[in-house]
Amino acid sequence: MISAIRKIDVFFNKHLVDKIAKYIIYGFGAVSVLILIAIIVFIVISGLPVFKEIGVFDFIFGTEWSVRNNTFGIFYMILGSLVVTALALAFSVVISIGCAILLAEIAPTGVRNVLRPLIELLAGIPSVVYGLIGLVILVPIIGEMKNGSGFSILAGGIVLALMVLPTIVSISEDAIRAVPRSYNQGALALGASKWQSLWHVILPAAKSGIIVSIILGAGRAIGETMALVMVIGNSFEMFTSIFDPARTMTTNIAMDANYAEGLHRDALFATATVLLFTILLINSLATVILNRKAKVNRSA
């Protein structure tokens, strides 16, 4: 009788602990979501005065940013953000996917154990260090090439390419490794070479994961600030080539935040709102692609 009571007591205590732990974990998740919602609401509300006074269309497609005249338009900054991000991806995607293929399929274990930590280390380097390297090395080289200052979209694109490389490599490698080994073995059994199997079987099967890595890399690049402030030139004028200076949404916020007040301050929050929803759109696109891939895998 006593042993039975003890067993019942242990049973209820175990389940009580499980319930408490479950609610604590749910609480942590709820706090994270509430913090995110609070940040979004605060940024949007702070930017509403600009959207009301200037208008959403005029603010997004306006081409003049004048604190003195209370005229704020961020179209050139949006273009600057998109172009420097596209340039960074153009430089980094091929190298990143090649590196992911090397780590996942080709490199021997010794090389892989050395190369992978080095790539992961790139992700841990502060952005200001990348900006300093770009300022000291890239900017003078580009300046000599074009007989200018060297502060340019090209410098920003190269620096961002280095910064997004670890993200694309890591996710692409995971996507390639997730392809069942039977795919490769079947292709080899049918007479394909290792390269043909890789190019025509493994990479197409890992395509969704690789696309997601590129999208997340774009989100990482478009949200970068400190490194770009140091190398891109921060010009309000419309650029005509990648050798011209420009200003992105993030660098605009960083450059003006210290002295902004009134409508100017609200304009920075409105810029942050546009940037926030751009990044949310990019991340949502990656999530949609991953969910479609998961559905295809379950149906298969």
The coarse silhouette is globular
Mean pLDDT across every amino acid position: 85
- What structural class do the secondary elements suggest? mainly alpha
Number of helices: 12
- What spatial order of strands do you see in the largest sheet? 1-2
Q: Beta fraction of the residues? A: under 5%
List keywords for this structure.
12 helices; mainly alpha; single chain; 80% helix; 300 residues; two-stranded antiparallel sheet
Structure description:
With 300 residues, this protein is mostly helical. Helix content is 80%, strand content 1%. The chain is built from twelve helices and two strands; from the N terminus they run H-H-E-E-H-H-H-H-H-H-H-H-H-H. Strand 1 and strand 2 (71-72) form a beta hairpin. The longest helix has 52 residues, at 2-53.
Describe the structure concisely.
This protein is an all-alpha fold and 300 residues long.
